[in-house]
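Chapter summary example.
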Amino acid sequence: MAIIRRKKKRHGTITIKISRENKMENDKMNGWTKKRKVDTFMGILLQVYCFFPWMRINRKWNTIHRYVIKTFQENDYIKMYNHTFLKPENMKIAIVGASGAVGQEFLRVLEERNFPMDELVLFGSKRSAGTQYLFRGQPLTVKLLQHNDDFKDIDIAFVSAGGGTSKEFAETITKYGAVMIDNSSAFRMDEEVPLVVPEVNPEDALNRPRGIIANPNCTTILLVVALKAIEPLSHITRARVSTYQAASGAGAAAMDELYNQYRQILAGETPTVEKFAYQLAFNLIPQVDVFTDNGYTKEEMKMFNETRKIMHSDIRVSSTCVRVPALRAHSESIWIETERPLSVEEVREAFSRAEGLVLQDNPAEQDYPMPLFLSGKDPVYVGRIRKDLADEKGLTFWLVGDQIKKGAALNAVQIAEYLCKKGL
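The structure predicted for these 424 residues follows.
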């Protein structure tokens, strides 16, 4: 075997094995049966590909990158060293919106998971610029987000600063090849932007013509992780969902407001109401986001549209989203209808084997998921599984997941981990 090896400081090492001609017996034993001319051509192409690593990272060459990888893998011309195409070295990561609730969660998740990076850069607004945060024991200072070349050496940028900021700075962030993983709703339904939940459709992240990957809405993420486990059993045609969304979904200031409202009410004071339409303490608000012309809120329409895009499905989702006075972690009550009736045992078994799910379903012991105990946890927890008494093909269950973690920061970091595994 002839071995070509090229190393690029910032973008890792690739080891490529190419079969020699004149060894047909060995070729057959190893599954390498291509003709000499094809071997020669592919060998030359591989050498060119190694000598010009910018072809592999510049988003303008993204289509070529995917084609080369797919062609080589399908024809068994290369073996991935340690099962990766590129091994990132000197990875440089950015967080845009570092001072917000999700931005702070990014810092915690990246540290918890020991994400492979050599440098982390924080960006924020004029209000947060200059603020320092500890990461891996070292202080990091938030830089002012500007239209300049600050993202020139960035490999992956986690962006959670609102849809307006994402739209305004998308080109600045991606123009030098950085992958922008955006937590806002700005690009979720853009046909050229994949909408990704790693447990459901990770491969979609490899096709990103604009250099952007969208992080879905928090309630959608929790929902599709559970639906993914059921879909192989029988196609899900409908889902009806009631959500019970914690204050964390409206940001860090909303969480503080909920704390203050309880304190003010218990002290006999008039509660401050700024982040919600009404007082949230001791109350439920059957509105999350603004209403649309069809009577549903934007949050409810996100669940309809995003679920279909992520699952590549014609599933119809009807939901009612409610803000509840829990601090952190969202809950959902879900009714599904499938093409064939499913038993509780089938679904419970599927949930127990599913990636990213934890089955917590023991009603006899009053054991079921609750947000009080699951804040800060990585998985989505599911329980209260039972047949729908009103629909022969129906089934209902309950789930809880941390909105800031799996519903936002963790999902984005898992996307980045997948990209690193696949060589960006």
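To summarize the output: Residues 264 and 271 are 5 Å apart (CA to CA).
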